[in-house]
Amino acid sequence: MGKLIGYCGIVCSDCPVFVATQKNDDAERRRVAEIFTKQYGREYKLEDINCDGCVSDSSRIFWYCNDCEIRKCGRERKVENCGFCVEYPCERLSELFAKYYVAKETLDGIRRERGIIKG
Predict the structure, then answer these.
(1) Mean pLDDT in order along the chain per 10 residues (119 residues)
(2) Which residue from 17, 70, 78, 109 puts its CA 20 to 30 A from 41's CA?
């Protein structure tokens, strides 16, 4: 399976929630829940660790991604990801890119590969 790229350019298939879900591995879900609980100060349970990727039509979307305004916009605009949007990069993406530049690199790379931008 190739990389699954989220609307924002984050690689869903690299996310530990996605990986645990695709493996259907409860031990891994439990491990990720424990890590996230410590890291983010919010209690995560085994059943919280389920996601098929934000671009999927699945009902199994991690809560954070399910509430994401970038995801909601991408779905409304029916784009493969935000790199295909005529308003790329928008203000929401620019805010994300300031914190997570790798997402911008991913979307810019897709835009180059698909001939949306030159260079």
Answers:
(1) 91 96 97 97 96 95 95 97 96 96 96 81
(2) 70
